[in-house]
Amino acid sequence: MSPEDFRRHGHAVVDWIADYLGGVETHPVLSRVAPGSIRDALPTSPPTHAESVETMLADLDRVIMPGITHWQSPNFFAYFPCNASGPSILGEMLSAGLGIQGMLWATSPACTELETHVLDWLVEMLDLPTFFRSDGEGGGVIQDTASSATLCALLAARDRATGWRSNEHGLTGGPPLVAYASTEAHSSMEKAMAIAGLGRANLRLVEVDERFAMRPQALAERIAADRADGRLPIFCCANIGSTSSTAIDPLGPIGEVCRREGMWLHVDAAMCGTAALCPEFRWIHKGIEHADSYCFNPHKWMFVNFDCDCFWVRNRADLVRTLSVLPEYLRNEATASGKVVDYRDWQIPLGRRFRALKLWMTIRHYGVAGLQRAIRDHVSWARWFADRVRDDDRFELVVEPPASLVCFRLRSSDDANERMLAALNATGELMLSHTRLEGRYTLRFSVGATLATKGHVERAWRAIESAATGIG
Ligand SMILES: *Cc1c(COP(=O)(O)O)cnc(C)c1O
Question: Are residues 184 and 253 in the same domain?
Fold first, then answer.
Protein backbone atom coordinates (compact mmCIF):
# COMPACT_ATOMS: atom_id res chain seq x y z
CA MET A 1 0.00 0.00 0.00
CA SER A 2 1.60 3.23 -1.12
CA PRO A 3 1.59 6.26 1.19
CA GLU A 4 -0.95 7.89 -1.15
CA ASP A 5 -3.27 4.87 -1.05
CA PHE A 6 -2.81 4.75 2.71
CA ARG A 7 -3.89 8.39 2.97
CA ARG A 8 -7.09 7.69 1.02
CA HIS A 9 -8.00 4.53 2.92
CA GLY A 10 -6.94 6.09 6.20
CA HIS A 11 -9.39 8.94 5.70
CA ALA A 12 -12.12 6.40 4.99
CA VAL A 13 -11.27 4.51 8.15
CA VAL A 14 -11.29 7.69 10.27
CA ASP A 15 -14.68 8.54 8.74
CA TRP A 16 -15.85 5.04 9.61
CA ILE A 17 -14.76 5.40 13.24
CA ALA A 18 -16.29 8.88 13.56
CA ASP A 19 -19.59 7.62 12.11
CA TYR A 20 -19.46 4.62 14.43
CA LEU A 21 -18.95 6.69 17.56
CA GLY A 22 -21.54 9.21 16.41
CA GLY A 23 -24.14 6.48 15.97
CA VAL A 24 -23.05 3.93 18.55
CA GLU A 25 -26.38 4.26 20.37
CA THR A 26 -28.28 2.87 17.39
CA HIS A 27 -26.82 -0.62 17.92
CA PRO A 28 -28.14 -3.13 20.47
CA VAL A 29 -25.53 -2.84 23.23
CA LEU A 30 -25.02 -6.57 23.74
CA SER A 31 -24.22 -8.56 20.61
CA ARG A 32 -26.99 -10.99 19.72
CA VAL A 33 -25.12 -13.46 17.55
CA ALA A 34 -25.13 -17.20 18.24
CA PRO A 35 -21.82 -18.99 18.90
CA GLY A 36 -20.03 -19.80 15.64
CA SER A 37 -22.10 -17.49 13.46
CA ILE A 38 -19.25 -15.04 12.77
CA ARG A 39 -16.95 -17.83 11.65
CA ASP A 40 -19.71 -19.30 9.51
CA ALA A 41 -19.83 -16.01 7.59
CA LEU A 42 -16.09 -16.06 6.87
CA PRO A 43 -14.45 -17.91 3.96
CA THR A 44 -12.90 -21.22 5.00
CA SER A 45 -9.54 -20.43 3.40
CA PRO A 46 -7.57 -17.17 3.14
CA PRO A 47 -7.65 -15.21 -0.13
CA THR A 48 -5.11 -16.16 -2.78
CA HIS A 49 -5.30 -12.76 -4.45
CA ALA A 50 -5.30 -9.24 -3.08
CA GLU A 51 -8.59 -7.76 -1.98
CA SER A 52 -9.54 -4.10 -1.73
CA VAL A 53 -9.91 -2.10 1.45
CA GLU A 54 -13.42 -1.17 0.27
CA THR A 55 -14.41 -4.85 0.33
CA MET A 56 -12.84 -5.28 3.75
CA LEU A 57 -14.77 -2.31 5.16
CA ALA A 58 -17.97 -3.64 3.64
CA ASP A 59 -17.31 -6.98 5.37
CA LEU A 60 -16.58 -5.16 8.60
CA ASP A 61 -20.13 -3.79 8.47
CA ARG A 62 -21.73 -7.00 7.22
CA VAL A 63 -19.84 -9.75 9.06
CA ILE A 64 -18.03 -8.25 12.04
CA MET A 65 -20.37 -5.57 13.39
CA PRO A 66 -23.19 -7.96 14.36
CA GLY A 67 -20.67 -9.70 16.62
CA ILE A 68 -19.64 -6.53 18.44
CA THR A 69 -20.79 -5.68 21.97
CA HIS A 70 -20.69 -1.91 22.16
CA TRP A 71 -18.44 -1.00 25.06
CA GLN A 72 -18.36 2.62 23.87
CA SER A 73 -22.14 2.94 23.98
CA PRO A 74 -23.34 5.44 26.57
CA ASN A 75 -25.83 2.72 27.54
CA PHE A 76 -23.07 0.30 28.51
CA PHE A 77 -23.17 -0.10 32.30
CA ALA A 78 -21.72 -3.62 32.54
CA TYR A 79 -18.46 -4.85 34.15
CA PHE A 80 -16.21 -1.80 34.45
CA PRO A 81 -15.98 0.76 31.66
CA CYS A 82 -13.29 0.45 29.02
CA ASN A 83 -13.72 4.02 27.97
CA ALA A 84 -11.86 5.12 24.85
CA SER A 85 -11.78 8.72 23.63
CA GLY A 86 -10.93 10.65 20.47
CA PRO A 87 -7.46 11.78 21.62
CA SER A 88 -6.61 8.27 22.79
CA ILE A 89 -7.66 6.68 19.50
CA LEU A 90 -5.52 9.23 17.66
CA GLY A 91 -2.58 8.40 19.92
CA GLU A 92 -3.09 4.70 19.18
CA MET A 93 -3.12 5.42 15.45
CA LEU A 94 0.10 7.40 15.70
CA SER A 95 1.71 4.61 17.69
CA ALA A 96 0.76 2.15 14.94
CA GLY A 97 1.90 4.63 12.31
CA LEU A 98 5.33 4.97 13.86
CA GLY A 99 5.49 1.21 14.23
CA ILE A 100 8.33 1.26 16.71
CA GLN A 101 9.27 -1.35 19.30
CA GLY A 102 10.37 0.21 22.56
CA MET A 103 12.10 -2.65 24.37
CA LEU A 104 15.24 -0.56 24.97
CA TRP A 105 15.82 3.15 25.43
CA ALA A 106 18.06 2.92 22.35
CA THR A 107 15.34 1.39 20.16
CA SER A 108 13.39 4.69 20.37
CA PRO A 109 14.44 7.05 23.17
CA ALA A 110 11.19 9.03 23.01
CA CYS A 111 9.11 5.92 23.72
CA THR A 112 10.90 5.39 27.03
CA GLU A 113 11.31 9.01 28.07
CA LEU A 114 7.71 10.02 27.35
CA GLU A 115 6.51 7.01 29.35
CA THR A 116 8.72 7.82 32.35
CA HIS A 117 7.67 11.44 32.18
CA VAL A 118 3.92 10.86 31.91
CA LEU A 119 4.07 8.35 34.78
CA ASP A 120 5.78 11.01 36.89
CA TRP A 121 2.95 13.38 35.89
CA LEU A 122 0.45 10.81 37.09
CA VAL A 123 2.16 10.55 40.49
CA GLU A 124 1.39 14.24 40.83
CA MET A 125 -2.11 13.96 39.33
CA LEU A 126 -3.17 11.17 41.73
CA ASP A 127 -1.14 12.61 44.64
CA LEU A 128 0.72 9.31 45.02
CA PRO A 129 3.81 9.14 47.28
CA THR A 130 6.82 10.85 45.71
CA PHE A 131 8.90 7.68 46.20
CA PHE A 132 7.13 6.32 43.13
CA ARG A 133 8.70 9.05 40.99
CA SER A 134 11.57 8.19 38.69
CA ASP A 135 13.91 10.79 40.21
CA GLY A 136 14.20 8.72 43.41
CA GLU A 137 14.53 4.96 43.78
CA GLY A 138 11.16 4.15 42.30
CA GLY A 139 9.53 4.65 38.95
CA GLY A 140 6.56 3.85 36.77
CA VAL A 141 6.01 1.73 33.68
CA ILE A 142 3.04 0.98 31.45
CA GLN A 143 1.90 -2.64 31.50
CA ASP A 144 -0.74 -4.17 29.27
CA THR A 145 -3.09 -4.91 32.17
CA ALA A 146 -3.42 -4.91 35.95
CA SER A 147 -3.02 -8.70 35.82
CA SER A 148 0.52 -8.25 34.50
CA ALA A 149 1.31 -5.58 37.09
CA THR A 150 0.23 -7.92 39.89
CA LEU A 151 2.29 -10.75 38.42
CA CYS A 152 5.42 -8.55 38.12
CA ALA A 153 4.98 -7.36 41.71
CA LEU A 154 4.56 -10.93 42.96
CA LEU A 155 7.66 -12.12 41.07
CA ALA A 156 9.79 -9.32 42.54
CA ALA A 157 8.40 -10.05 46.02
CA ARG A 158 9.15 -13.76 45.60
CA ASP A 159 12.76 -13.13 44.59
CA ARG A 160 13.34 -10.47 47.21
CA ALA A 161 12.02 -12.86 49.88
CA THR A 162 14.46 -15.62 48.85
CA GLY A 163 17.41 -13.25 48.52
CA TRP A 164 17.12 -13.78 44.74
CA ARG A 165 17.91 -17.50 45.06
CA SER A 166 14.57 -18.33 43.46
CA ASN A 167 15.50 -16.13 40.51
CA GLU A 168 18.65 -18.15 39.90
CA HIS A 169 17.79 -21.66 41.03
CA GLY A 170 14.01 -21.81 41.18
CA LEU A 171 11.97 -22.60 44.25
CA THR A 172 13.97 -25.45 45.71
CA GLY A 173 14.24 -26.03 49.44
CA GLY A 174 13.07 -23.28 51.76
CA PRO A 175 9.66 -22.92 53.34
CA PRO A 176 6.50 -22.63 51.19
CA LEU A 177 5.89 -18.97 50.28
CA VAL A 178 2.40 -17.62 50.90
CA ALA A 179 0.51 -14.57 49.67
CA TYR A 180 -2.66 -12.85 50.86
CA ALA A 181 -5.56 -11.03 49.29
CA SER A 182 -9.18 -10.61 50.31
CA THR A 183 -11.99 -12.97 49.36
CA GLU A 184 -13.08 -10.14 47.02
CA ALA A 185 -9.68 -9.86 45.29
CA HIS A 186 -9.41 -10.10 41.53
CA SER A 187 -8.87 -13.53 39.98
CA SER A 188 -5.56 -12.31 38.50
CA MET A 189 -4.03 -12.87 41.94
CA GLU A 190 -4.79 -16.59 41.79
CA LYS A 191 -3.44 -16.77 38.25
CA ALA A 192 -0.24 -14.96 39.30
CA MET A 193 0.33 -17.51 42.09
CA ALA A 194 0.13 -20.35 39.58
CA ILE A 195 2.41 -18.60 37.06
CA ALA A 196 4.96 -17.56 39.71
CA GLY A 197 5.33 -21.18 40.77
CA LEU A 198 4.01 -20.45 44.24
CA GLY A 199 0.86 -22.48 43.78
CA ARG A 200 -2.77 -21.47 43.96
CA ALA A 201 -3.10 -23.29 47.27
CA ASN A 202 -0.64 -20.86 48.84
CA LEU A 203 -2.93 -17.89 48.26
CA ARG A 204 -4.90 -17.02 51.38
CA LEU A 205 -8.21 -15.31 50.85
CA VAL A 206 -8.72 -13.10 53.87
CA GLU A 207 -12.20 -12.40 55.29
CA VAL A 208 -13.91 -9.09 54.55
CA ASP A 209 -16.14 -6.78 56.57
CA GLU A 210 -19.72 -5.68 55.85
CA ARG A 211 -18.44 -3.34 53.13
CA PHE A 212 -16.46 -6.18 51.52
CA ALA A 213 -13.11 -4.65 52.54
CA MET A 214 -10.29 -6.81 53.91
CA ARG A 215 -10.20 -7.21 57.71
CA PRO A 216 -6.63 -6.37 58.81
CA GLN A 217 -7.09 -8.38 61.99
CA ALA A 218 -8.01 -11.46 59.96
CA LEU A 219 -4.93 -10.86 57.80
CA ALA A 220 -2.69 -10.77 60.89
CA GLU A 221 -4.29 -13.99 62.19
CA ARG A 222 -3.80 -15.83 58.89
CA ILE A 223 -0.16 -14.75 58.81
CA ALA A 224 0.42 -15.94 62.38
CA ALA A 225 -1.13 -19.32 61.55
CA ASP A 226 1.05 -19.70 58.45
CA ARG A 227 4.20 -18.80 60.36
CA ALA A 228 3.27 -21.32 63.05
CA ASP A 229 3.03 -23.95 60.29
CA GLY A 230 6.49 -23.08 58.98
CA ARG A 231 5.41 -21.10 55.92
CA LEU A 232 6.86 -17.75 54.84
CA PRO A 233 4.39 -14.88 54.20
CA ILE A 234 5.80 -12.69 51.43
CA PHE A 235 3.09 -10.68 49.71
CA CYS A 236 -0.25 -9.01 50.19
CA CYS A 237 -2.42 -7.56 47.45
CA ALA A 238 -4.84 -4.88 48.63
CA ASN A 239 -7.67 -3.70 46.39
CA ILE A 240 -8.64 -0.08 46.01
CA GLY A 241 -11.92 -0.85 44.36
CA SER A 242 -12.61 -4.60 44.30
CA THR A 243 -13.98 -5.96 41.06
CA SER A 244 -17.35 -7.09 42.40
CA SER A 245 -18.27 -3.98 44.37
CA THR A 246 -15.35 -1.45 44.41
CA ALA A 247 -14.64 -2.20 48.08
CA ILE A 248 -11.70 -0.19 49.43
CA ASP A 249 -9.26 -2.22 51.53
CA PRO A 250 -7.82 -0.19 54.46
CA LEU A 251 -4.21 0.38 53.40
CA GLY A 252 -3.08 1.90 56.70
CA PRO A 253 -3.65 -1.11 58.97
CA ILE A 254 -2.87 -3.61 56.19
CA GLY A 255 0.37 -1.76 55.48
CA GLU A 256 1.36 -1.86 59.13
CA VAL A 257 0.91 -5.62 59.17
CA CYS A 258 2.98 -5.96 55.98
CA ARG A 259 5.77 -3.77 57.31
CA ARG A 260 5.91 -5.68 60.60
CA GLU A 261 6.07 -8.99 58.73
CA GLY A 262 8.55 -7.84 56.09
CA MET A 263 6.00 -8.50 53.33
CA TRP A 264 5.56 -6.77 49.99
CA LEU A 265 2.36 -4.71 49.76
CA HIS A 266 0.94 -4.38 46.26
CA VAL A 267 -2.03 -2.07 45.75
CA ASP A 268 -4.37 -2.96 42.90
CA ALA A 269 -6.44 0.14 42.15
CA ALA A 270 -7.32 -0.94 38.59
CA MET A 271 -10.72 0.76 38.49
CA CYS A 272 -10.84 3.24 41.35
CA GLY A 273 -7.33 4.73 41.23
CA THR A 274 -8.62 7.23 38.66
CA ALA A 275 -10.94 8.73 41.30
CA ALA A 276 -7.85 10.11 43.09
CA LEU A 277 -7.57 12.71 40.34
CA CYS A 278 -10.08 14.58 42.51
CA PRO A 279 -8.86 15.69 45.96
CA GLU A 280 -12.21 14.79 47.56
CA PHE A 281 -11.74 11.10 46.62
CA ARG A 282 -8.11 10.77 47.74
CA TRP A 283 -9.22 9.19 51.01
CA ILE A 284 -9.22 5.90 49.06
CA HIS A 285 -5.41 5.99 49.13
CA LYS A 286 -5.06 6.59 52.86
CA GLY A 287 -2.10 4.49 53.98
CA ILE A 288 -0.58 4.26 50.49
CA GLU A 289 2.80 5.24 51.96
CA HIS A 290 3.15 1.56 52.99
CA ALA A 291 2.92 0.31 49.39
CA ASP A 292 5.84 -1.36 47.61
CA SER A 293 3.95 -1.20 44.34
CA TYR A 294 0.74 0.28 42.97
CA CYS A 295 -1.23 0.04 39.75
CA PHE A 296 -4.33 1.50 38.13
CA ASN A 297 -5.88 1.22 34.68
CA PRO A 298 -6.32 4.38 32.59
CA HIS A 299 -7.97 1.94 30.15
CA LYS A 300 -10.86 1.52 32.52
CA TRP A 301 -11.94 4.94 33.69
CA MET A 302 -9.47 7.50 32.33
CA PHE A 303 -10.50 7.62 28.65
CA VAL A 304 -7.45 5.76 27.34
CA ASN A 305 -8.37 2.89 25.08
CA PHE A 306 -7.36 -0.65 26.01
CA ASP A 307 -4.61 -1.56 26.85
CA CYS A 308 -2.94 0.72 29.39
CA ASP A 309 -2.15 -0.12 32.99
CA CYS A 310 0.17 2.18 34.96
CA PHE A 311 2.40 0.40 37.45
CA TRP A 312 4.80 1.95 39.96
CA VAL A 313 7.36 0.41 42.26
CA ARG A 314 8.91 1.94 45.36
CA ASN A 315 12.28 0.42 44.52
CA ARG A 316 12.87 -0.21 40.82
CA ALA A 317 16.05 -2.19 41.59
CA ASP A 318 13.88 -5.05 42.97
CA LEU A 319 11.83 -5.27 39.81
CA VAL A 320 14.75 -4.91 37.41
CA ARG A 321 16.81 -7.51 39.24
CA THR A 322 13.93 -9.94 38.96
CA LEU A 323 13.16 -9.37 35.28
CA SER A 324 16.39 -8.19 33.61
CA VAL A 325 18.11 -10.05 30.80
CA LEU A 326 20.99 -8.94 28.62
CA PRO A 327 21.76 -11.18 25.67
CA GLU A 328 24.58 -10.10 23.40
CA TYR A 329 22.25 -8.87 20.65
CA LEU A 330 20.67 -6.30 22.98
CA ARG A 331 23.94 -4.82 24.27
CA ASN A 332 24.36 -1.13 23.47
CA GLU A 333 26.24 1.91 24.65
CA ALA A 334 23.28 3.65 26.32
CA THR A 335 22.46 0.58 28.42
CA ALA A 336 26.11 0.13 29.37
CA SER A 337 26.32 3.78 30.46
CA GLY A 338 23.68 3.13 33.14
CA LYS A 339 22.09 6.47 32.26
CA VAL A 340 18.91 5.15 30.68
CA VAL A 341 15.85 3.10 31.55
CA ASP A 342 15.34 -0.08 29.51
CA TYR A 343 11.72 -1.02 30.06
CA ARG A 344 12.20 -4.58 28.82
CA ASP A 345 13.47 -5.17 32.38
CA TRP A 346 10.23 -3.94 33.95
CA GLN A 347 7.80 -6.37 32.30
CA ILE A 348 7.31 -10.00 31.22
CA PRO A 349 7.67 -9.72 27.43
CA LEU A 350 10.73 -8.27 25.75
CA GLY A 351 9.01 -6.14 23.12
CA ARG A 352 6.70 -3.28 23.89
CA ARG A 353 4.32 -0.87 22.20
CA PHE A 354 4.46 2.92 22.33
CA ARG A 355 1.49 3.22 24.68
CA ALA A 356 2.58 6.45 26.36
CA LEU A 357 1.49 8.39 23.29
CA LYS A 358 -2.22 7.77 23.80
CA LEU A 359 -1.93 8.44 27.53
CA TRP A 360 -0.08 11.71 26.90
CA MET A 361 -2.57 12.86 24.27
CA THR A 362 -5.56 11.99 26.44
CA ILE A 363 -4.21 13.90 29.45
CA ARG A 364 -3.39 16.91 27.26
CA HIS A 365 -6.76 16.88 25.52
CA TYR A 366 -8.83 16.89 28.72
CA GLY A 367 -6.39 18.61 31.04
CA VAL A 368 -6.46 17.56 34.68
CA ALA A 369 -9.50 19.77 35.26
CA GLY A 370 -11.42 18.12 32.42
CA LEU A 371 -10.66 14.64 33.75
CA GLN A 372 -11.74 15.69 37.24
CA ARG A 373 -15.01 17.06 35.87
CA ALA A 374 -15.80 13.77 34.13
CA ILE A 375 -15.01 11.67 37.21
CA ARG A 376 -17.14 13.94 39.42
CA ASP A 377 -20.03 13.62 36.96
CA HIS A 378 -19.82 9.84 36.90
CA VAL A 379 -19.72 9.57 40.67
CA SER A 380 -22.62 11.97 41.09
CA TRP A 381 -24.76 10.10 38.54
CA ALA A 382 -23.98 6.81 40.31
CA ARG A 383 -25.09 8.39 43.59
CA TRP A 384 -28.26 9.63 41.95
CA PHE A 385 -28.92 6.09 40.74
CA ALA A 386 -28.20 4.65 44.21
CA ASP A 387 -30.74 7.10 45.69
CA ARG A 388 -33.40 5.86 43.25
CA VAL A 389 -32.66 2.27 44.32
CA ARG A 390 -32.87 3.25 47.99
CA ASP A 391 -36.20 5.04 47.49
CA ASP A 392 -37.84 2.12 45.71
CA ASP A 393 -39.22 -0.63 47.99
CA ARG A 394 -38.84 -3.25 45.28
CA PHE A 395 -35.04 -2.90 45.34
CA GLU A 396 -32.24 -2.98 47.86
CA LEU A 397 -28.82 -1.37 47.74
CA VAL A 398 -26.34 -4.12 48.58
CA VAL A 399 -23.63 -1.74 49.76
CA GLU A 400 -23.10 2.03 49.80
CA PRO A 401 -21.30 2.79 46.49
CA PRO A 402 -17.81 4.23 47.17
CA ALA A 403 -17.38 5.49 43.59
CA SER A 404 -19.19 4.94 40.29
CA LEU A 405 -20.44 1.37 40.67
CA VAL A 406 -23.85 0.61 42.19
CA CYS A 407 -24.52 -2.95 43.44
CA PHE A 408 -28.21 -3.62 43.92
CA ARG A 409 -30.87 -6.30 43.63
CA LEU A 410 -34.56 -6.89 43.56
CA ARG A 411 -35.86 -7.87 46.98
CA SER A 412 -36.61 -11.26 45.55
CA SER A 413 -34.97 -14.56 44.63
CA ASP A 414 -31.66 -14.93 42.81
CA ASP A 415 -33.66 -16.37 39.97
CA ALA A 416 -35.87 -13.27 39.68
CA ASN A 417 -32.78 -11.06 39.61
CA GLU A 418 -31.16 -13.21 36.97
CA ARG A 419 -34.28 -13.09 34.82
CA MET A 420 -34.50 -9.33 35.17
CA LEU A 421 -30.91 -8.90 34.01
CA ALA A 422 -31.46 -11.18 31.04
CA ALA A 423 -34.63 -9.31 30.10
CA LEU A 424 -32.93 -5.93 30.34
CA ASN A 425 -29.91 -6.93 28.28
CA ALA A 426 -32.14 -8.59 25.68
CA THR A 427 -33.79 -5.24 24.93
CA GLY A 428 -30.51 -4.04 23.44
CA GLU A 429 -31.19 -0.64 24.96
CA LEU A 430 -28.67 -0.99 27.77
CA MET A 431 -26.34 -3.50 29.34
CA LEU A 432 -25.66 -4.35 32.97
CA SER A 433 -23.73 -7.26 34.46
CA HIS A 434 -23.86 -9.19 37.72
CA THR A 435 -21.80 -10.63 40.52
CA ARG A 436 -22.37 -12.49 43.77
CA LEU A 437 -22.10 -10.71 47.09
CA GLU A 438 -22.70 -12.59 50.34
CA GLY A 439 -23.54 -15.52 48.11
CA ARG A 440 -26.46 -13.73 46.50
CA TYR A 441 -26.99 -12.75 42.88
CA THR A 442 -26.35 -9.01 42.60
CA LEU A 443 -26.76 -6.57 39.72
CA ARG A 444 -23.93 -4.18 38.88
CA PHE A 445 -24.61 -0.75 37.39
CA SER A 446 -21.27 0.76 36.46
CA VAL A 447 -21.10 4.37 35.24
CA GLY A 448 -18.13 5.59 33.22
CA ALA A 449 -18.67 5.42 29.45
CA THR A 450 -17.08 8.41 27.71
CA LEU A 451 -20.28 9.29 25.85
CA ALA A 452 -22.64 8.80 28.82
CA THR A 453 -24.70 11.69 30.17
CA LYS A 454 -27.01 12.01 33.13
CA GLY A 455 -29.85 11.44 30.67
CA HIS A 456 -28.56 7.98 29.82
CA VAL A 457 -28.42 7.07 33.50
CA GLU A 458 -31.98 8.36 33.99
CA ARG A 459 -33.24 6.35 31.02
CA ALA A 460 -31.46 3.26 32.35
CA TRP A 461 -33.21 3.66 35.69
CA ARG A 462 -36.60 3.92 33.97
CA ALA A 463 -35.85 0.75 31.97
CA ILE A 464 -34.84 -1.09 35.15
CA GLU A 465 -37.97 0.08 36.94
CA SER A 466 -40.24 -1.19 34.22
CA ALA A 467 -38.33 -4.48 33.98
CA ALA A 468 -38.93 -4.91 37.72
CA THR A 469 -42.63 -4.46 37.11
CA GLY A 470 -42.48 -7.15 34.43
CA ILE A 471 -40.72 -9.63 36.72
CA GLY A 472 -43.17 -8.89 39.56
C1 LIG B 1 -10.44 -5.00 36.24
C2 LIG B 1 -9.56 -5.42 37.36
C3 LIG B 1 -8.40 -6.15 37.14
C4 LIG B 1 -8.05 -6.75 35.84
O5 LIG B 1 -7.79 -5.85 34.91
P6 LIG B 1 -6.88 -6.19 33.67
O7 LIG B 1 -6.21 -4.91 33.47
O8 LIG B 1 -7.83 -6.57 32.60
O9 LIG B 1 -5.96 -7.29 34.04
C10 LIG B 1 -7.57 -6.40 38.20
N11 LIG B 1 -7.89 -5.99 39.43
C12 LIG B 1 -9.00 -5.30 39.68
C13 LIG B 1 -9.29 -4.88 41.08
C14 LIG B 1 -9.88 -5.00 38.66
O15 LIG B 1 -11.01 -4.34 38.92
Answer: yes
